[in-house]
């Protein structure tokens, strides 16, 4: 039996307790300042307020001021924090890291490093470590099509764990893989992370196509399917330009995750509001009022700026990323969604 500490008691952090408990491990679930009600419910044996169902017995739930207890004698740390907060939360954990440590991450996004260049999240986390720990901590990133509630219900699921140290990925795989929760391992951290971040951005575009039904009175499945194809093309280009493997983009990390996120989730919902007539700022406000974090909103901006960065490095051209470019214009430039979505399809017509 191993001890695993999950940092963040939200949707995915809580869901990962299921395969871990199933495999007989000791599971510590630590909640941030935003997770107080979740931790209280778990301690009282009540439903998880987000999932509306009970989690398995045996979870050790810790409040925000109990981080040291949650991390005591742990064999694996899993970061399950939204991308906008992961750096801040990770810094709290660093004082409790001693010697060789494996840190898994289900957080998805891009961030600026100390040199103001956009990089994948593991690079930012590694940069936060003191020099003496930089070679002691192995990061394992998680990608692939995985809705948290389906992990709880043990729907057959297939994901990817990527690490520069393949043995660390295999170790994490050994702790979490079950008959229902299947894990593939590889070393393509860049490919997995780029796809994980950018599928959030492109899923907003897929949601926009769905939202057109509220304006035009009929579904736009043709539009959405075309956009899916163009999104995948651009994810392949971006992954390749960043040094990731095309195999990741056309596999579970790219195609798989894009499909499931475009069918259900916060980013699709955000896009659907815009396609249905909300301005981007109105859509953001509505979802914030409902305490919903839309990672795709910032992913569009980071993705756009990353392409500009790669253009300066002569590795990619913004003109090759018409879907992302027009998505940026819709969300950050308040340009008309229907007109610009048509523009994307025009660009990709021979």
UniProtKB/TrEMBL annotation:
Q: Which PANTHER family does this one have? A: GLYCEROL-3-PHOSPHATE DEHYDROGENASE, GLYCEROL-3-PHOSPHATE DEHYDROGENASE [NAD(+)] 2, CHLOROPLASTIC
Instruction: Kindly list the GO molecular function terms attached to this UniProt entry.
Output: glycerol-3-phosphate dehydrogenase (NADP+) activity; NAD binding
| Residues annotated to bind substrate | 108, 266-267
Q: Where is the Glycerol-3-phosphate dehydrogenase NAD-dependent C-terminal domain?
A: 188-341
Residues bound to NAD(+): 8-13, 148, 266
Annotated catalytic residues: 199
Q: Please state what the protein is called.
A: Glycerol-3-phosphate dehydrogenase
Question: Pfam families annotated for this entry?
Answer: NAD_Gly3P_dh_C, NAD_Gly3P_dh_N
Keywords, comma-separated and alphabetical: Lipid biosynthesis, Lipid metabolism, NAD, NADP, Oxidoreductase, Phospholipid biosynthesis, Phospholipid metabolism
